[in-house]
Design brief:
Layout lengths: L3 E5 L4 H12 L3 E6 L13 E5 L5 H5 L7 E4 L11 H11 L2
Parallel strand pairs: 1-2, 1-4, 2-3
Length: about 100
């Protein structure tokens, strides 16, 4: 049984549905997102929101091992990255 979960990319299409289901099942849920403003209002008071960037290793390491399960849904999706920096960011998020 899952008592606690961390969801990266919790405000993505799939993430929103997963987090809503975890809430419904009374799982203690933390959501790791880049922008706290994008969290649905119905999650307020029901999930712990952690703001950060998925490529920031220090931020991720500070989360520790306090979760029963981690659902890694964070991704950076664009049809074609426009700059070298954007290409590096896409690679860092989706591959590394």
């Amino acid at each position: 049984m899952i008592n606690s979960a961390l969801v990266t990319g919790g405000n993505s299409f799939i993430g929103i549905h997963l987090v809503s289901e975890l809430i419904r099942r009374d799982v203690s849920t933390s959501v790791y997102v880049r922008c706290i403003k994008t969290i649905p209002d119905e999650w307020i008071g029901k999930v712990k929101v952690i703001e950060g960037d998925i490529i920031d290793n220090n931020s991720l390491l500070n989360l520790g091992d306090k979760f029963d399960v981690v659902f890694h849904l964070a991704a950076y999706v664009h049809k074609t990255p426009k700059s070298d920096d954007e290409k590096k960011y896409v690679f860092a998020v989706n591959v590394e």
